[in-house]
Amino acid sequence: MKTDTGRDLQRDPAGRLRHLLTLEGLSRDEIVHLLDLAQFYVREPGDLPARDGALLGRTVANLFFEPSTRTRVSFELAATRLGADVVNLDLHSSSRVKGETVLDTIYTLQAMMVDVFVMRDSEPGLPAFVTAHVQPHVSVLNAGEANVSHPTQGLLDVLTIRQRKGDLQNLCVAVVGDIRHSRVARSTGTALQTLGVGELRFVSPASLTPEQDEFPGAKRFDSLEDGIRGADVIMALRIQKERMDQSQIPDVDAFLKEWGITERSILHANRGAIVLHPGPMNRGVEITNAIADGPQSAVQQQVRNGVAVRMAVLATIVRNVQVRNVQAGRRDV
Ligand code: CP
What is the CB-side half-sphere exposure of residue 276 using CA atoms within 13 A? Predict the structure, then answer.
């Protein structure tokens, strides 16, 4: 069964995006707008990072109830480069360890004039729950929700594919590995389908395949060789041990041999195929060093795009709230 990802909660009464909980329900034009704005913020290695004042006077709070390196740091950099004040709640020294509820934590930070909550949690439903309780000028951005949704990762993945391969309509994208437990596969798959990708494939052992009612348009393969034959883009996924029973965790060596993206297995893909991985990578499990660090890898480009995408999302959401505030006669500057 699919979890309700909050697609109906993320808009204001005029239909503008006020939160970003999921990519489900976003139109092609909305996604393209976010990608184009992100592209505006992209800089090459060695350049100074892009900056503007779109979030001047705003406060962004990062609340990560599950570990993160890329998403948490890139949201912090994105908000800072847009001129916001940023608070990173250290959960080990916060009052949550004394039993404070998440909602009381939210209300406490909201009273300190936090405008945007960036949230990650291992359980489904927290971003939507918080969205239903914050004040009308406050936004919630989903930074990774169980195996349900990771919308900014989906955006940065399709931005990377667009930069490297151009028009998605002519591309075959193979998502490989632990799809069942992956929020990235769900969000990136949604973005790819909304943008009209030529072919979307899910390539995984039966135990790691999503249920049949998810992504009816995706082709499913239970053989790596068949699944990546003719692919232009391969997205390798991490084995999500933290979402598995001990008995479900595959043997590392056997997994690499049968499902790993290696110098040998990638020969089945199209010449010039690129390899994505959302990170963190399990090197030697779903991907080898030679591929992760080789010329076909787009992993570092994904990370770079992550900051630009989060700048675009923050700027868009805050702009939408600002429009609503001005229309409602609230003091917004
Ligand atoms: N891709 C991703 O979400 O990475 P982090 O867990 O490091 O944020």
Answer: 30
